[in-house]
């Protein structure tokens, strides 16, 4: 592969739900809205091209941010256990049924919501939605299944630490967020996992998983009549007693520098993530920030990639991104290089932050605007992409014309608005920097940046 | 996707022949005099185009000392020609709203461009320019060598699963160039000479060794005249020499042990298999789903759920031009007895050999293949990639439309027959990765 830059279309899908071409229609096809009496709102778009159907659903307030710190990981375990047996079917039967359809059903949590992704051939979709409904309505939470998942999670944390590039993200998340709810690790931690019980899982389910306030979308070759008949037999009958979620606190605003070095003695490269405050999902800076990130670390010719990879060959990949929540956001930059090059690399990164604040050239702004516009239509091409956009926009309190507004904002961003975004959003004195690497070789090189807290990768926790 | 497949709706159900006909009839394919194969498909759903260029070159065409060079050339294709300076390809492309990527495999190297319709001429011009125009500027080459070395450190050396796979594959395959990984050995990465790289490039980057696929928002007549204009002047090259090395039959169990800083041990087993065009490929491809895809699969159920000795199981067979491997890869729980995992894998393979699989399992695997087959075809990029791969690997893009028929022809008996040839001890290589200082 040539690129290590995260696939941009995916990034946009997650962070900046959407837009495409014909202005008359809007970027997103306007869906039919179906409101169910249990409080679930469902959007439907017919795409007859291929015999496929995609289903997406989000349950705001049922995400990992609703976990108390001592139960870290409980929402993720709960989500996994939903497909591990119902009052009528054993876990093996559910797995057999799903695999027999050749379908995919994934239930997982993000900080802000629980999500359900289900995809299948159109002919198998009725059965898939039925299985999804039973998983949500009658999960068994069998002790035996819970024990298996729990032991897998405990072992999984150890396996994560064998991969420095993956582990550095979890160490960063812990260092940046501390006990802020938006920073819960979906993996859980050794302490929370050891204390985890099936009662805690059931309790999370009872209080959080409800159709009230949830958004779903069905996109594909199914007809409206077929869908409605199906809904009356499935999701229309879904009941849940969960309470509406309390608004989440904003993510942390670090003051000063936090420097953490994790010693992994066999690492031949040093991996780092640097983070600082970003912006919220509804912040009007969004289009200018998108242009800024495109130029700074969001595409192959970005400054980070040009200086670290293209000009100097220091790394295979270097990138930056803005992660947004309703209550705020986080900026992160990350890369990796040979142990002896780590300081050279970080010096360049810090100098680029400063340079960006003094502005970008007009032709750079034009290039980034074209790039964002040109790469946007493919992010709404598939059934699953349209369905995901519909539910994410609603969960963020936006309208279906938001993608069009976003793209208009991108076209009208200027060197001035992007510079203002850079001054506001790129780190200066206040940030968190985490490095995973061979301390014996990199610690002396890192000393000039300040006081480092040194951990061993074999120490418990992150 | 276009409204081109509307006829499916009338069929009302999954109906491959209808899908195939409606799409197939809209594809135009031809060869230029210099040998370049062109595949065109108009699709006006989104105002974008996917342009994919495939070259018939990969690690399969390399030799000791030059391992990894196919992948390195993939990198250098973005680093300048006589007309377009280093890095300018990407800058030009991004300026007109385009993005790109590329990948190298054992049998092919592919370049993918996704861009707004208005950028079509610019992109065809730049792609044609770099087909034979890569400059290999010495200082840029050295910098890019560092990038690829970093890629190897990241993707192989600091990745326990990749290190084990590299060791096992190289132990199992001793003669054929599939012996080494696509990334190449580190000492080769650090030692390729510019002239050697250029010679290799000259041999394989020629229109008669390439396939151009365009899918998206353009008029075929426009695309054809642009292709004519920019590609016709490129001379064809000599036909590259065939890869003639045949892996000799394995004559006994091979084992390899890797010791590494690790908290979780890893297990892997491989067996030599047929190539994509040989009998037995499709039965083995369905068997890999029966054994390892989904939580109801045989090996997952046994190792992860019943014995609780593994976190995950993955693997299978790949579509390759020459015979390659059937892989079982097991992420073991920390402290697991890898010998026990091997005994269980052996038992399960033995069951397939002796008792076969059920009709129901075969149908389940076919459903999985169908779902995976259609999903990428929703996008212009997915279509372009699928058409190009079918042309290179199966010898004709039209085989894409009969692929499901090949799967549907598989029976439990055919799986049993190829399994008894494949899963023998003499044909097997086992690899263990254990924590440094840990027990063997």
Walkthrough of the structure:
- The complex is a heterodimer of chains A (462) and B (440).
- Chain A is an alpha+beta fold and 462 residues long.
- Chain A has 2 domains: 31-237, Cytochrome Bc1 Complex, Chain A, domain 1 (2-Layer Sandwich), CATH 3.30.830; 257-384 and 396-456, Metalloenzyme, LuxS/M16 peptidase-like (Cytochrome Bc1 Complex, Chain A, domain 1), CATH 3.30.830.
- Chain A has 17 helices and 12 strands.
- In chain A, the strands form 2 sheets. In chain A, strands 1-2-6-3-5-4 form a 6-stranded mixed beta sheet, with helices on both faces. In chain A, strands 9-10-8-11-7-12 form a 6-stranded mixed beta sheet, with helices on both faces.
- The two termini of chain A are 30 Å apart.
- The model of chain A is unreliable at 4-24 (pLDDT under 50).
- With 440 residues, chain B is an alpha+beta fold.
- Chain B has helices spanning 7-11, 16-24, 69-76, 88-95, 120-133, 138-157, 160-172, 186-189, 194-204, 220-231, 281-292, 298-306, 338-355, 359-374, 380-393, 403-408, 412-422, and strands spanning 27-31, 37-42, 48-55, 99-104, 109-116, 210-216, 254-260, 266-272, 310-317, 325-332, 428-435.
- In chain B, the strands form 2 sheets. Chain B has a 6-stranded mixed beta sheet, with helices on both faces. A 5-stranded mixed beta sheet of chain B has the order 7-11-8-10-9, with helices on both faces.
- Chain B is globular and about 60 Å long.
- The chains are: A alpha+beta (462), B alpha+beta (440).
- At the A-B interface, α3, β5, α5, α11 and β10 of A face α4, β4, β5, α6 and α12 of B.
